[in-house]
Amino acid sequence: MSDHVSAEIVSQPDLWRRAAGLARGVSDALPQAGERVAVVGCGTSWFMAMAYAALREEAGIGETDAFAASEMPTGRRYDRIVAITRSGTTTEVLQLLRRESTPSVALTAVADAPIRDVATHLIPLRFADERSVVQTRFATTTLALLRASLGHDMDTAAVDAEKALQLPVASHLDAPQVTFLGRGWTVGLAHEAALKTREAAQFWAEAYPAMDYRHGPIAIAEPGRLVWNFGEPIEGLADDVAATGASLVTSDLDPLAQLVIAQRFAVALAHRRGLDPDRPRHLSRSVVLPTAQP
């Protein structure tokens, strides 16, 4: 079964390298050291916002919060807003930027979309746009650019992504349930991996911070199920998962490359179930609300 998303997944390593090069030319539009920053998006874009916010905080560059665009508090002071929107038409993002007077920068795949009229700065990533409804390469390329702006070596991450494209996923496809885990910036990646399996394959998956997993969610683990960890597993996780009979999935690759494996898993699972991963039910490329929402 052919689909657009599979080709878009394969293209990611080269796009990450391209985004890293672009980061040097747009540095003035991106958050500066010491600025207090809000990062917003919807769905997949929100999860990338979570990852970037955590990375920026970990780097000690400035206080950084991530919000679903509909949930950003009013009246809270920020020096800059970073908005992530593939289509540039997402209603909640547009409403937020119209409401806020804070300087903003929007990362989008569509430069002539309405987002250009409400953002202070625009960083177009046309080369990362997608034909599939399911987001893969735009999201990871955006995060690659933001990581590069923090000084991360995205060429090494791209090399790991090339390895991730070759790793088998067939052994995971019989699992009846998956729980994705992360810590710090990889919590956002875990949420994105779970969303991909729900969207593309209509397959239930969950995501949690790894340290919180043992505070309840581990109760669902049992033989045949997967606990899929992003980044370095926390101490004791392997033993705790083994005791349930579930299987721990982990890797030494860059966590963003680990997400590529999860994307491939979601698409392969969709194919196994006879579904079209490009066109998930009830979803469209962009959520444009017919009337203003509160």
Task: Please indicate the count of domains.
Answer: 2
Question: Which percent range describes the beta-strand content?
Answer: 5-15%
CATH class of the largest domain: Alpha Beta
Number of helices: 9
Main sheet attributes: strand count, strand direction, barrel closure: 5 strands, parallel
State the shape. globular
The poorly predicted ranges are none
> Which superfamily, in CATH terms, is the homologous superfamily of the largest domain?
Glucose-6-phosphate isomerase like protein, domain 1
Radius of gyration: 18 Å
Looking at the overall shape, the CATH architecture of the largest domain is: 3-Layer(aba) Sandwich
Q: Which strand order spans the largest sheet, edge to edge or round the barrel?
A: 2-1-3-4-5
Global mean pLDDT: 95
How would you characterize the overall build of this protein?
There is one protein chain. By secondary structure, this protein is of the alpha/beta class. It has two domains: about 150 residues, Rossmann fold; about 120 residues, Rossmann fold. About 35% of the residues lie in helices and about 15% in strands. The strands form two sheets. Strands 2-1-3-4-5 form a five-stranded parallel beta sheet, sandwiched between helices. α2 packs antiparallel against α6 and α6 runs parallel beside α9.
